[in-house]
């Protein structure tokens, strides 16, 4: 990849959400914002090799995208005589900020996460408009067909336009009711960065994890007493702390038990632990923890151990037992079984995993977990078949490399 291609890729990672959010704020239309932003990046691909990368790529992209949006609206005005939209184009006075925080990307998230939209539409639209993920990447994240995901995003944007959903951060009294949907979106954005689903992307996308953390910090400042906001931030920080140790120099995924714990980010671990301790104190005072707080506590147990052999697996299983009562997702049950394997042995864990087959047979992590348990039980033929299926289902290059090596070790 040339230096210019790298610059375009980096600008897309860093600036996509800013450009789309700025255009949405000015023009009030997600379609216009997305199309104009896409055109700006296409123009960058064409012009930057000859003209050079501008000193401020984000400003260049925003200016170019704004011009494309104005051109489009002018064309529409000529056809439809939309005088109101024409006045909006030439009005350079920024609108008054609405809500407690003046951040365009946060406005965009709350717009995409409006309760008038179905939850699946909120997640998909935010990943596209804020995260900048492609439709194929989002489709893989949701385990649905690309065509279906494209239609879902199109319908969501049409709903926002027809229902006149406002582009703003909700008023303070409405925030608590709206924030859970936003947290779900940010968690999914973080997860896509933590281990990207696409085979043609970096296995770990720091741009997405950093953006999810930044926006979660903003919501934390807005709702400092919300335990789930604090829990999600702690979960992200404790996960992000391990990022540099998660992929080897050869591009292979490194599982938690094999990671160099000295390479973890000590500052992020300390901040995450502090947030978890705050929530544990609140729980002791009678405030029941939510899903993100329990997941953060599980990660705190893992990151407290100097060596994987020092992990308090009984505490991990106890926390998963608490989590299962709140979230009966088969994926949570799968993760609990992984912990059970360390506490009660692979045979007990395999029985729990096999009970999830009807729901998770097409999920690569299910097959990978089953393969590892079968390997530990000495059932090599069955383990190889499970590894084969996991490799077939995995989209991430680092995961595929790791699973392939584990399979070959069976020889």
Automatic annotation (TrEMBL):
Residues 18-78 form the RNA polymerase sigma-70 region domain. The keyword Transcription applies. SUPFAM superfamilies: Sigma2 domain of RNA polymerase sigma factors (SSF88946), Sigma3 and sigma4 domains of RNA polymerase sigma factors (SSF88659), TPR-like (SSF48452). Keywords: Sigma factor, Transcription, Transcription regulation. One of its GO terms (biological process) is DNA-templated transcription initiation. It holds the Pfam family Sigma70_r4_2. It comes from the Bacteria. Residues 109-160 form the RNA polymerase sigma factor 70 region 4 type domain. Residues 178-278 form the DUF6596 domain. This is RNA polymerase ECF family sigma subunit. It comes from Pseudonocardia hierapolitana.
């Amino acid at each position: 990849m040339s230096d210019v291609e790298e610059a375009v890729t980096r600008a897309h990672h860093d600036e996509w959400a800013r450009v789309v959010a700025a255009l949405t704020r000015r023009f009030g239309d997600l379609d216009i914002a997305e199309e104009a932003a896409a055109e700006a990046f296409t123009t960058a691909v064409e012009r930057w090799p000859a003209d050079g990368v501008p000193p401020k790529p984000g400003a260049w992209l925003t200016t170019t995208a704004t011009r494309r949006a104005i051109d489009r609206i002018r064309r529409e005005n000529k056809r439809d005589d939309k005088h109101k939209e024409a006045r909006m184009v030439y009005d350079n006075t920024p609108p008054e900020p609405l809500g407690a925080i003046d951040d365009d990307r946060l406005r965009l998230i709350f717009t995409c996460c409006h309760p008038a939209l179905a939850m699946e539409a909120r997640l998909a639209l935010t990943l596209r408009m804020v995260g900048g993920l492609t439709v194929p990447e989002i489709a893989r994240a949701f385990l649905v067909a690309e065509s279906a995901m494209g239609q879902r995003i199109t319908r969501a944007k049409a709903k926002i336009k027809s229902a006149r959903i406002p582009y703003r951060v909700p008023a303070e009294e409405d925030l608590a009711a709206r924030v859970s949907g936003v947290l779900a979106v940010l968690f999914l954005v973080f997860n896509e960065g933590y281990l990207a689903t696409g085979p043609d992307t970096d296995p770990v996308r720091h741009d997405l994890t950093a953006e999810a953390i930044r926006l979660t910090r903003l919501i934390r400042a807005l709702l400092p007493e919300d335990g789930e906001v604090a829990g999600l931030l702690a979960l992200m920080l404790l996960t992000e702390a391990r990022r540099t140790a998660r992929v080897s120099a050869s591009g292979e995924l490194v599982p938690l038990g094999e990671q160099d714990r000295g390479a973890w980010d000590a500052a992020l671990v300390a901040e995450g632990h502090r947030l978890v301790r705050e929530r544990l104190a609140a729980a002791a005072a009678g405030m029941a923890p939510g899903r993100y707080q329990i997941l953060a506590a599980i990660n705190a147990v893992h990151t407290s151990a100097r060596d994987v052999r020092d992990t308090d697996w009984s505490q991990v299983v106890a926390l998963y037992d608490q989590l299962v009562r709140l979230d009966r997702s088969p994926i949570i049950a799968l993760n609990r079984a992984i912990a059970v394997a360390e506490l009660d042995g692979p045979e007990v864990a395999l029985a729990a995993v096999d009970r999830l087959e009807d729901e998770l047979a097409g999920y690569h992590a299910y097959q990978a977990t089953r393969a590892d348990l079968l390997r530990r039980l000495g059932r090599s033929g069955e383990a190889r078949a499970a590894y084969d299926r996991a490799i077939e289902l995995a989209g991430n290059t680092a995961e595929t490399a790791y699973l392939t090596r584990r399979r070959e070790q069976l020889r």
